[in-house]
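User: Can you help me understand a structure? I only have the sequence.
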Amino acid sequence: MRLLTPLLMSLLLACPHITEAAETSGQKAVTQQQAANAALGAPGVKALAAQGVKLLDVRSDGEWKAGHIAGAEHAYWLSVAGKTEQLWPDKSTPIVTYCAVGVRARAAAARLRAAGYTHVLAMGDGGYEDLIKAGLAKAP
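Assistant: Let's start by predicting it. Here is the structure, written out as tokens:
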């Protein structure tokens, strides 16, 4: 069995299209955004959400209750890794974190990456209000 793993790894490395085919459109979109290394603003988040990327609001409970994006999940930025593992145990789930202005979103994304999540982006240019202005629906 030990020989099988290196063999499979060499096949995957020799044939990158095999691993690419396994990625979802949301994962591909996150990978492309990561490669671009550009600040992710509200229009970019909206486009990613349309491709199935999960939105994670990392603001406080009070901010969440005052309003959040429809379909988003909530995990306070300091406890984000544990909550996210409950929501999405698959660590290849494509996720975008957002907060009010970007600071907590970036910190939460870093925590998720440290916890092993591979397709994570932070909204680094703006926050919740910008998402509403960009046309993402507010939860009822």
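Now, to help you interpret it: The two ends are 53 Å apart (CA to CA). The domain at 24-133 is CATH 3.40.250.10 (Oxidized Rhodanese; domain 1). Let me know which part you'd like to focus on.
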